[in-house]
Amino acid sequence: MAEPNAAPHAEIDPATAGVAANHEDKDDHDKPRDSKGWDGKLRVDKSVVVKYPADPNAEVQSDAEESEDEGPPPDEIQADEDLLDDVPDDEDDIELVHCKIGDMSKLRLERFKQMRRLCLRQNRIQTIEIPTDAAATLTEIDLYDNLISHVKGFDAFTELTSLDLSFNKIKHIKRLDHLKKLKDLYFVQNKISTIENLDGLTNLRQIELGANRVREIQNLETLTGLEELWLGKNKITEIKGLDTLTNLKILSIQSNRLRTISGLDKLVNLEELHISHNLLTSLDGLKHNTNLQVIDISSNPIEHLSGLETLTHLTEFWASNCKLSSFAEVEKQLKDKEELETVYFEGNPLQRTQPALYRNKVRLALPQIKQIDATYVRQV
What we know:
The protein has helices spanning 327-334, 349-352, 358-365; strands at 19-21, 42-44, 93-95, 117-119, 140-142, 162-164, 184-186, 206-208, 228-230, 250-252, 272-274, 294-296, 316-318, 342-344, 371-372, 375-376. The chain is built from three helices and 16 strands.
C-alpha cells in the first residue's frame, strides 16, 4: 500500500481548498484510506478536518458558514458555441473542462444525436440547459464545480445512470425521482441540509453527500440496492435509518459528530467502515458486521480495542491518533485476525512513548502484518 496522503486524483477544486472529491476512481477500492481524514472518496484537508476536543464530553464547534460571493459570475469567454465547432456531429462523448462556459445553450449540443456522456466540469454554468434531443442516448452528466443552485432540467433524461452535481450551490435535492435507471449520484460539497426526494431511485448503487450540512440520516429506506453511502464531513450525531440497506458494502461517515457506533446491526454485508474524526470512545456496536474488511477509527478518543472480536475478516485496521497505549491489548484483539495485513497506529501513546521500538513491537504483537503505517515490513 502506498503512502496514503496521495489522493487518487490530483484535481483540487480551486474555489474550495478544504475538500476535494473525485469520482473517476470510484471503482478502485484498493486505494488507501488516510488516517488524517481521506477515505478514498471525500478528501478532507488536514487544515480543516474536525479534531476531537480534549474533553470527550465537549461539543464540536459548528463549521463556520461559508461567506460566498452570490453575485454574478465573472465575464464568460465570448462565443461559447465556437468551442465545439470542430467536433463531428457523431461524437458521443462531449467534454469541456475549465472553459469558462456560462451559457449551455450556446454550445448547440442538439447537434450531437448520439451523445452518451456530457462533461462540463469547472465552468460557470448557473442554469442546466441540455436539449431534450439527447435524452434517448445520454447516460452520464457531469456538472462538477459550477455555479448551479437549483436541480432542474432533467425531466426528459430518463436514461441517466450517472449524475454528478458536486461542488455547486445546491440546497435541496429535487426533481430527480423519475430517474429510475440512475446508479451513481454525487452531491459532494453543496449546501444540502436534508436527504430527501430520493425514494424512487431504487436502482441507486452509490450516493455521495460528503461536505454538506446534513444533520440526520433519513429517507433512504427504499434504496435497498445501495452499496456505497458517503456522508463524510457533515453534522451527523447518530447512525440510524439504514436497517433496510442490507446490500451496503461501504459506509463513510468520518468527520461528523458521532459519540457511539449504533444502527449497523442489519448491515451484515458491510465491508468498509470509515468513521474517523468523530467523538467515539468505544468500538461497541460492530458485533453483527462480521464481513468488515476495512475499518478506519483514526482521530477518535478511543483508549481500548474491545468490540472487534467478531471481525475475523479484517484486512486493514486504521487507528492513528487515538489514545491507544497497550501493545498487549493490540495483540489480544488483533493477533487472531489471520487476514489482517495493514495497521496504522501512528500518533498513539504506544507509538509516541517509544518511537524507536514501536514498529518492532507491532511486528512481535502481530506477526501476520505486512504493512505498519506507510511502511512495508516484509515482502508481499
